[in-house]
Design a protein that fits this description.
8-stranded parallel beta sheet, alpha/beta
């Protein structure tokens, strides 16, 4: 049966400006694929990897380059050869998963061999001008048992101290987004461990983390920017305790599941992460979350609004969408 692929860009405003080390956003530009086959339509969404300069303007031509093969019937396995890892392949891969679910009458969770159990997601505390401002945000999130704190090289220990004082009950993880040097990491890590930080994501820049080999860190270090996809697993395993898996990095749910299983087989701890996007991006990540110890899929909570019918956020609990949304045939 003939397929028809359509692609469009969308802009989704942020609820409030969102800051990480070296970057700030007022809104997020996403690419959306729709793949129609008879009475069924599969959808996929991607923001792309911002530090690799991916945008809808770069992803749309990539998707177009594979359109003829996809419309002719190429499946997810063939897609892995048609496009490299990244946002363009992610949007197409997720559209193919959704289409397969609708055609088969089985959910993507069933197709992936996992349960659609509710998961507990982090709630992200973005960078603010002062530690006190971040503590205020943490205090306001009293119903969130797991907080993810964005850090840069400006008073990171003081920021965690302030948040810990405001939320002594919370489990804390932090993300430096590659904004530190190795001497800074060695200085700050013992204090962060003392404050009960459960893990630290990507302290050093991608491509600048060779000094982690042989470093006995006092708290678990997870690779984010330093582990994009399966081909980078070996390097990450030599330097980190865990990896953060994001579908925009791996190029879709297909490789993300393979990376999770391979990383777990190497003894690495696993976290599913996300770019800031709607439930159309986050629902495939909910499938992957079933294999992960830590879950960071709070992207829709950082937007002014989400797509109707998407994931159900009740406090820190995230439940699969009702039938009819992505991956859940009616």
């Amino acid at each position: 049966m003939k397929r028809t692929l359509s692609v469009r860009a969308e802009h989704w405003p942020a609820k409030t400006p969102f800051r990480i080390a070296g970057r700030s956003w007022d809104g997020f530009d996403l690419v959306v694929c729709e793949l129609r086959e008879g009475a069924h339509t599969g959808r996929g969404e991607a923001e792309g990897v911002f530090y690799l300069d991916e945008t809808p303007a770069t992803m749309q031509p990539q998707i177009a380059s594979a359109a003829a093969e996809i419309e002719a019937g190429a499946d997810r396995r063939a897609l892995q050869e048609l496009l490299p890892p990244g946002g363009a392949r992610n949007a197409l891969d997720c559209a193919l998963w959704d289409l397969e679910a609708r055609r088969s009458g089985r959910s993507v969770w069933q197709l992936a061999g996992v349960k659609p159990d509710p998961v507990t997601t982090v709630f992200t505390i973005g960078l603010e001008a002062t530690p006190e401002a971040m503590a205020t945000k943490a205090r306001a999130a009293a119903d969130r048992p797991l907080l993810k704190v964005k850090l840069n090289a400006d008073r990171p220990v003081e920021r965690i101290e302030a948040i810990r004082a405001a939320r002594p009950d919370a489990r804390l993880v932090a993300d430096a987004n590659g904004g530190w040097t190795f001497p800074q990491l060695r200085e700050w890590a013992p204090h962060l461990a003392r404050l009960g930080l459960s893990l630290l994501e990507q302290p050093l820049p991608r491509g600048g983390d060779h000094e982690l080999a042989g470093y006995d860190a006092p708290l678990p270090l997870f690779a984010d920017e330093s582990c994009l996809h399966l081909a980078e697993l070996d390097g990450a395993a030599d330097r980190y305790d865990g990896i953060v898996i994001k579908l925009d990095k791996t190029g879709g749910l297909t490789e993300a599941l393979a990376l999770a299983r391979a990383g777990g087989g190497r003894g690495l701890r696993l976290m599913v992460g996300c770019m800031v996007a709607t439930s159309l991006s986050m629902t495939p990540a909910h499938v992957l979350a079933q294999l992960c110890e830590f879950v960071d899929i709070d992207g829709p909570l950082l937007l002014a609004q989400d797509r109707p019918g998407g994931l159900r956020y009740e406090g820190a609990s995230v439940t699969a969408p009702r039938a009819g949304f992505w991956g859940t045939p009616t």
